[in-house]
């Protein structure tokens, strides 16, 4: 098993609140790892640590390691913009920029220095195709991305993340604000994307975890209770707490 | 028994009648207060047209607006020098004030730590509260001699000095409005940009600022309005001579300062005096235009 992302004894505090406790987790290449657990269990915090978006919280304190391709991302030599280029993120609420669809997708490549119009056109088309929304928007690339439906906006956000050609894609409850049809489109998309990317998703929805993920990690009160192949975790959980959670006894 | 019930009823009726008349009274007081503002605007508009238009027509609208010489005492009434000076002064102040103001707003909204932001913000509100005559006074005593020495001129009271004073005067409104607009940018936009590997600075310039553009445009229009209407501060530093604004070192007179400086000398009933009202009418029209522009921006902001 080739883990692209790996955490070693990861601890995180928000002020006095010990939000992540000694997390050791491997996220293998070209697989979907789902993080599940009740609200406030630390799964989103964990996800945000993987591309250092938690750096934006002023009171945060982190110990331990997150290894991206064997490089500790907290190493002072690591450029955080380099990391975020390679570890992309899709947020819970669709958040396209208030710009045209084209400019949304081209934002990342432009930021990283691509100015050539033809090259940008290619990236935009490829990314939109990659996010399975090209056919729906190809005739209105100059229209505002905010004019699209929520599900389309979320796929624009996925396309925007793909445009910088990341290695890993983090998705923070990326379907929780969407209707069932949009959700199923994005789930199909995830299955397609994992051929080229390594994906980590946070989800509240256990059916979704069983549908899309290869591996599953169960978080509770800031601890990683259990991580295993999704099928195993849901059929023969090792820990009593996991069993209670997946059978719906709490959460 | 029946009598008592009857008494109670009339009492209740009386109370209700009293309450209704208080309601009526209060409602009408509100209405009257609201009318004061509307009536004032209407009165001023009508008054300016009535008192300003005849002189303009008598002089000839083209001669008045595009005449390049003003000599009220001797009956030459061309206000092009004033119009161009007002444009040049306002334009100059906007040219310097907008970048400085918007960058300050960006700093306050997105970069500065809390304590520093509080210090700067209170300085800015203090700046907004300084009476314009004080700006003029400080300008006259400090700025004008400095300009004179720095450029080796016979007098430092000129267009440049006026632009500097106007720039400082419009900064507070630009900073306040632009900062509010920048703060209102949803942080999701900025997070998305950072998550794509953009730096903090790239995020501010390429996401936050464009997202706040209608607010920033409002700030600029407010600045224009403030600058074009200002009289007191610049009358003391601009030299107050009816010259064409040929360069930054020309002593000049603005639309506002032309009215303020000659009103006391022009004989009541003379064409000279009436032409001053015509200048006021022109100024008023400019400010109306700016207000229309402002409303358009605010409307766009609500819709967008």
TrEMBL record, chain A:
CDD domains documented for this protein: ABC_PstB_phosphate_transporter
Ranges where the ABC transporter domain occurs: 5-246
Keyword set, alphabetical order: ATP-binding, Cell membrane, Membrane, Nucleotide-binding, Phosphate transport, Translocase, Transport
Places the protein is found: Cell inner membrane
Coiled-coil regions listed in the entry: none
Main function: Part of the ABC transporter complex PstSACB involved in phosphate import. Responsible for energy coupling to the transport system.
Record protein name field: Phosphate ABC transporter ATP-binding protein
